[in-house]
Amino acid sequence: MGTDGSEFTLSRKRALRAILPFLALGIADVVLLLEWGLDPLWGFMILPPILMISVLGWVAFRGGMIRNHGVEPGGDEHPDRQ
Fold first, then answer.
1. Sign of the alpha-carbon dihedral angle for 34, 39, 45, 48
2. Can you give the pLDDT at residue 27?
3. How far apart are CA 6 and CA 12, in angstroms?
4. In sequence order, which ranges of the chain are alpha helices (DSSP H)?
5. Where in the chain are the domains?
6. Which of 1, 15, 29, 67 could serve as 62's disulfide partner, Cβ 3.0–4.6 Å?
7. What is the largest CA-CA distance in the chain?
């Protein structure tokens, strides 16, 4: 990691782009439930887990937990196979 923080900024943006579709689907689900006329309490019961999973996913992507540790790029092929 560089000391200038540019690598951190890029990984934060990348993490946001990776998590944003899932967060949007979760919010759309809550809006759909409320549009169907369900009690607003259901929306508030479903929203915290959606937000928590989105935050956990963002932290995982930003922190580099979603990576192939120990695998060289392009090195996943067996050396005997051509």
1. positive
2. 92
3. 10
4. 6-35, 40-63
5. 26-64
6. 15
7. 61
**pLDDT for residue 13:** 85
**Per-residue CA distances from 54 to 49, 61, 67, 73, 77 (Å):** 8, 11, 18, 28, 33
What six digits make up the tokens of 43? 């929306």
Q: Which two tokens stand for residue 75?
A: 């090195």
Here the tokens at position 13 are: 């943006």
Q: Which residue numbers in the chain have pLDDT < 70?
A: 1-10, 65-82
DSSP designation for 9: H
Of 18, 23, 22, nearest to 62 by C-alpha is 18
- Please give the model's pTM, rounded to 2 decimal places: 0.62
- pLDDT in the model for residue 54: 93
